[in-house]
Write a structure and sequence with these properties.
The chain is α/β, with parallel strands linked by helices and 221 residues long. The protein is built from 11 helices and 6 strands.
């Protein structure tokens, strides 16, 4: 990167990161209907995303944060550590403010949810390419609500890593630890350790207390 703006008709090369090939295909078609946006590569995991970024140096990354193995947040952190000028847009189903804060703290320039209208994805890509922070309206509302809440509960929740928060959401959705391990391509031992760490950070000792805490944090109806 030479620091000069690219010509107006220059292609904007995008690395698309999502663990579902069918989902990637749909977003590829949507994005490439809007030249000069162009998908240069696709990745299905955090490890692959980092490797492709290092190999190809794309202009922009559009990535989910729920990925097998290395989480999207961890991959984002590695990419930004390698290239502090990296432009990364998080595009995910998660609108929880804790995920948003973790992503922005890690260097993402944008965060929009998959429930957003298709045109918002295209607009967000262009905004992030221009180095403008962009958040989808539902994400902005979640952030505002969390910040109004304040208090020690918010601090406890914010102390969770992105992976811990992801597993917490799966636990309170009644997913078994074996199922979580399989879904995230982690060992059962790793999931058990993270489950313990979550309870320790939230100051609870049992799963019943964990569910009560989730209700207090408004993660559960």
């Amino acid at each position: 990167m030479n620091g000069f703006p690219p010509p107006a008709d220059a292609r904007i090369g995008i690395l698309l990161v999502d663990d579902h090939a069918v989902v990637r295909e749909g977003y590829r078609r949507l994005i490439e209907r809007h030249p000069p946006l162009h998908i240069v590569a696709e990745a299905g995991s955090g490890e692959e995303a980092y490797r492709l970024y290092a190999d190809l140096a794309p202009d922009l990354v559009v990535m989910d944060i729920t990925l097998p193995g290395v989480s999207g947040i961890q991959a984002l952190q590695r990419i930004v550590a390698r290239d502090r000028d990296a432009r990364v847009l998080v595009f995910t189903m998660h609108r929880d403010a804790t995920f948003v804060e973790k992503a922005l703290e890690s260097g993402a320039l944008g965060y929009i949810t998959k429930s957003s209208p298709p045109e918002l994805l295209v607009q967000a890509i262009r905004a992030v390419h221009a180095r403008r922070q962009t958040l989808s309206p539902d994400v902005q509302a979640e952030l505002a609500s969390l910040r109004r809440a304040g208090g020690s509960g918010r601090n406890a929740l914010a102390s969770l890593s992105a992976r811990e928060f992801e597993i917490l959401r799966m636990l309170i959705a009644a997913r078994s630890r074996e199922d979580i391990a399989e879904s995230l391509h982690l060992s059962l031992k790793t999931v058990l350790n993270i489950h313990y760490q979550i309870k320790a950070k939230l100051g609870v000792s049992t799963d019943i207390e964990l569910m009560h805490a989730a209700r207090q944090f408004k993660l559960l109806d």
